[in-house]
Fold this protein.
Amino acid sequence: MLQLVRVREDVAELPCEHLDFAGFGNDIHTTEWSYVMRARMEAAGISANQVILENSLATIVAASIYELNAMDRWLTAIDADTSHRPLSVKVAANRPADLSDGCFLNNGTQVREPLSYGGSGQCASLFPVAANTRLVAGSPLAMRAVKCALRPLDLTDYPVTFTDEQVATLRAAFPTGVCDWDRRGVGQRRPAGTWIGYGS
């Protein structure tokens, strides 16, 4: 599967500012999920089939033309690859040389640079990525646990001093403990396989 991810995250009134941070009433875009998917793909050793591109509404036409052309060239090259290599290898080997992570500036300039969650660079500065509650609570980026294992609340784990009122609130909010991201999730097990079929 090729994954050319477009992250369109801004509005005309907010040039190159992420809708995650645009305030009440704006579309909700959970950009972090592109990076969650990448973390999962990297763990499986197959991230060469994902490209993340960011752009504003001002550059939607230029970005769309580029993306469709790049995807067409990529698929055409894979189709023309008559080697006996596995498809996963063909996907990585035939990715167009000019196709990489990056973003389109509002003036139409394309910036090619690696993108990562919480990363730095021109695109990360123009298109910041918000977190979600699990990431803020310390979950690894791949967020593989549907239900986390718990451990007792230990106030010394946090680099702040809590008031008695805050301690009482925390203990009331987490009576059975907090997520222990170092342990496997409740009921979590390895996948049964990949590319599983559901029919004959």
